[in-house]
Amino acid sequence: MQETLHIDSGVSSHRAPGLWHESIVDQIVQAQPANRNPIINVAFHCIRRQPHSLYAALEELGGGASKQKTAHLCLSIVIPTMTATTITEARGIVAPYDSDVYNTVNHTLRIACQKAEERNIQPVINTAIREVFLKHNVEKNYSACLIHRHYDLAADERNVEQDGKAVASKDYTGLYPSSWIFHKGTCYPYEYKRYAVPQPLAEFVADLGDLLEEKGLTDLVGFQTYTDGIVGLESTDRETNVSTTIDQDEKLPVPEGMAPASWAFFRV
Predict the structure, then answer these.
(1) What is the torsional sign of CA 101, 145, 186, 45?
(2) Sheet holding 72-78, edge to edge
(3) Domains in the chain, ordered, with CATH?
(4) Pairing mode, strands 230-237 and 242-249
(5) Which of 89, 181, 191, 241 has a CA positioned 20 to 30 A from the CA of residue 149?
(6) Cα–Cα distance list, 5 to 40, 71, 72, 254 (Å)
(7) pLDDT (tens digit, 9 = 90+) per residue, 12-44?
(8) Distance from C-alpha of 241 to C-alpha of 94, rounded to nearest angstrom
(9) Using one digit for the tens of pLDDT, what is the confidence trace for 204-255?
(10) Which of 17-21's residues contact partners 24+ apart within 8 Å by CB, and which partners?
(11) Bridge partners, 236 (sequence order)
(12) What is the Cα Rg of the chain in Å?
């Protein structure tokens, strides 16, 4: 029978999200018996804001976080044997959202397209980057994407896509990371959706991050969730801070005023 450990996090919604992760991971590492894989119940008190980043981080540690809509939220996750480390130090694990990382991107979609052409990144996309996606069998769930900034975001805002519109939102209800960026050797969520989407495996994140660093492409290429056979085309209204994404068949030509912002991969 699998052993169960109980950890009371003592964490409320008023603490900074980044501190949640360090505190909980430290407790998990200290409590976990050597060479066993216990179920760990972690209790969070009065969670009203930003639970999505906790679920994502705990899932990246190896578990499937289950949400219970109660006043005292418990997550039951199975954690593989780990060494004493923190999330941000473990290569290939997605770190919590960081507004400073989002703000390191200083080019619009138009400028990003120009830079991609000037630096001739397409051959790398078609070969080495494609090979990483196929190696990990994730080509039907994720595509490479062109990193760009729609508009400025405050520290408490997130770029959220809903009904084809990407807007700056302070409502974190039901958010799931849907695109990711690499910055200084760490992967961070970059954009969100309001429905469940696949969350990436650590091995894939690590391999892709290593390759993008090697090729000097972390400022231009990240990855995002993908619907098989559909490409997202984007345009941004700078006055209203609303970015519009339309889905269309990948075989159709790009409409005027729109730009392809992702690359999907296929097996031949």
Answers:
(1) positive
(2) 4-8, 39-45, 72-78
(3) 4-89 (3.30.110), 99-263 (no CATH)
(4) antiparallel
(5) 89
(6) 5, 21, 17, 54
(7) 333 333 444 445 545 554 554 444 444 445 444
(8) 27
(9) 999 999 999 999 999 999 999 987 665 555 545 544 444 444 444 444 455 4
(10) 17/50, 17/53, 17/54, 17/96, 17/97, 18/96, 18/98, 20/44, 20/53, 20/54, 20/96, 21/53, 21/54, 21/57, 21/86, 21/87, 21/96
(11) 243
(12) 19
Q: Which tokens go with 233? A: 């085309």
Q: Which residues contact 262 (CB under 8 A, 6 or more apart)?
A: 143, 144, 145, 146, 224, 226, 231, 232
One-letter amino acid of 69: K
pTM score, two decimals? 0.61
* Structure tokens given for 99: 């507004």
Structure token pair of residue 69: 């809509």
Say how far apart CA 253 and CA 113 lie, in whole Å: 17
User: Positive or negative CA dihedral for 45, 50, 54, 56?
Assistant: positive
